[in-house]
Design brief:
84 residues, endonuclease, 3 helices, alpha+beta, two-stranded antiparallel ribbon, HNH_nuc, single chain, globular, nuclease, hydrolase
Length: 84
């Protein structure tokens, strides 16, 4: 089986699929703020394939790299409940 290689056409496909919005926040994406990450992080068993990729706002990059969407939601809920 050939290893998946990300191409510009894949990014265009993801942009259309996500309606040019961040997978996590819904913020509008542009060339200055867009980044790509795995939906299920590789370290948590995710695969490097198109169906496991999403476009996110760059400020979420490190958070998404190591956590699933559910883990991020739990972390955000804790911050909101803490009310600092």
């Amino acid at each position: 089986m050939e290893k998946f290689k990300l191409r510009a056409s894949h990014i265009r496909e993801l942009l259309k699929k996500q309606e040019y919005r961040c997978y996590l926040s819904g913020v509008e994406l542009n060339p200055d703020n867009v980044d790509i990450e795995h939906i299920v992080p590789l370290g948590k068993g995710g695969l490097h394939e198109l169906t496991n990729l999403c476009l996110i706002e760059r400020s979420f990059r490190e958070l998404k790299r190591y956590h699933t969407v559910e883990e991020i939601k739990d972390l955000c809920q804790k911050v909101v409940l803490h009310g600092c």
